[in-house]
Structure formats: C-alpha cells, structure tokens
C-alpha cells in the first residue's frame, strides 16, 4: 500500500507559536519517512506606511532598504532553522499574502500535509489580525495540521 504522507510542508513565522509545530513536523516526517520542506512567507504589505510619509525626501529609499534587510534576515532565519533540525529539510522562501502563498506553494509542491502553528488569537485580536491558519485550513487542497501553543503549566 502506498503511504498517504510522503511530503510535508511546515509553514513557520519563527514565533513561539510555531515551535511546537516544528516539533510535530520533524517527528511526523521522521516517523513516516516523509520529505520535509520548511516554508516562510514574507509579507511586505505589513510594512505599509500612511501615504503622507511617501512625500518625505529619502523615505522611499529607507523603506526599500528596510524591506531588503528584513527579507534577508527572513531567508537567513529559514536556513538556520532548517540546519537546526535533526533531519534533512529543503527551504522555501516566498513573498506575498501569507495564507494565499502557503496554499499556493502546498499545491505547487503537491504537499500531502501542511503543518503550521496557530497563535490562538480570539475575540478582537482574531477579528483585527485575522487568522492565517483558518484561511489555510479552508483553502488548502491537502490536509492541514494546526498546532496550538502549549499553555504554561
């Protein structure tokens, strides 16, 4: 019988909330002898600044330089994470709307399982910040495992 899960994509934002998801992804990939890909999506739209600031001389160059620096830091963090795992893992760095990019990349790479952490926002934070995990669960073509952060005991 053909295994159901051969390719796992772990989507991470490097937050505390993603730490347990990393442990699950590595454990599952090892247990199932599945390929593991680690994905980080950089969303530059979160860097939007009110339009009057664009009229300040040099501001646009400052924003571009900051974005480039942050983008590079994201790539380096992704590589460091992959190297820290107790197994071989390919990295994927993407840019765009986070939920949409996770779903697109999972389909493009024909993932059998997506794993991501959730921040567990509720109420106003959930309404204002949205939920990437919720979007991914609703739109991904493959099964999705969401991992809530552990509550301190």
TrEMBL record:
Keyword tags: Cytoplasm
Chief subcellular location: cytoplasm
Superkingdom in the source lineage: Bacteria
Compartment(s) of residence: Cytoplasm
Boundaries of every UspA domain copy: 6-148
One cellular-component annotation, GO: cytoplasm
Transmembrane residue ranges: none
Keyword Transferase belongs to the record: no
Recorded family membership: Belongs to the universal stress protein A family.
Protein name: Universal stress protein
Organism listed in the record: Nitrosospira lacus
């Amino acid at each position: 019988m053909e295994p159901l899960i051969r390719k796992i994509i772990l989507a991470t934002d490097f937050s505390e909330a993603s730490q347990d998801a990393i442990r699950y992804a590595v454990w599952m990939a090892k247990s199932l002898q599945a390929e593991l890909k680690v994905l980080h999506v950089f969303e530059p739209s979160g860097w939007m600044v009110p339009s009057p600031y664009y009229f300040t001389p040099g501001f646009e160059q400052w924003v571009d330089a900051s974005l480039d620096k942050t983008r590079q830091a994201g790539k380096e963090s992704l590589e460091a994470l992959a190297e820290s795992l107790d197994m071989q893992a390919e990295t994927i760095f993407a840019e765009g709307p986070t939920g949409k990019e996770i779903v697109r990349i999972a389909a493009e790479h024909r993932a059998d399982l997506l794993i991501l952490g959730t921040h567990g926002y509720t109420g106003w934070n959930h309404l204002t910040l949205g939920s990437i995990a919720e979007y991914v669960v609703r739109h991904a073509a493959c099964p999705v495992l969401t991992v809530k952060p552990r509550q301190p005991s």
